[in-house]
Amino acid sequence: MDNCERAAYIKGLIEGLDINDSTKEGKVLLAISELLTDMANDMEDLGDALGDLEAQVDEIDEDLGILEEEVYCDDGCKCGGNCGCDCDDDDDFDFMDDDFDDEEEEYFEVTCPECGDVIELNGEMLDEGSLECPNCGSMMVFDLENIEDVEGDEESEENTL
Hints:
There is one protein chain. The chain is α+β, with helices and mostly antiparallel strands and 161 residues long. Helix content is 45%, strand content 15%. The chain is built from four helices and six strands. The strands form two sheets. Strands 2-1-6-5 form a four-stranded mixed β-sheet. It has a two-stranded antiparallel sheet with strand order 3-4. α1 runs antiparallel to α2. The longest helix has 48 residues. The protein is elongated, with a radius of gyration of 35 Å. The C terminus is likely disordered.
């Protein structure tokens, strides 16, 4: 017998004894019966949700297992054949070296000659050679030969054009 059935059984016993809310004791017993019924229903809902969650976790675990088989070699390392183990020595993992550079991207400050607005540019934007000022719309052309390094605080280095 599950909790919902037990709560219904107790409610039936209370009704069979002709207990009603006309007495103080009757009010208490009926309130306890309602509480038991609500709690039993809530527990059943939680059990259903937990079952769904367990199924989703099992699916994720299976997918992760497949992914681990693809990424890790037999020795448990993530080398793609670069550690000297018996991994498949192809270039499937070369993308990992390119995506995880330890160096931070360098930024440059450019001052618009028309409005004086200071704009930060990364190297790619600077390589384009020109940029329209977002503040006033004038075209700025960059002379990459006149770059000077300016040391800022200890944590960052800025370059000014």
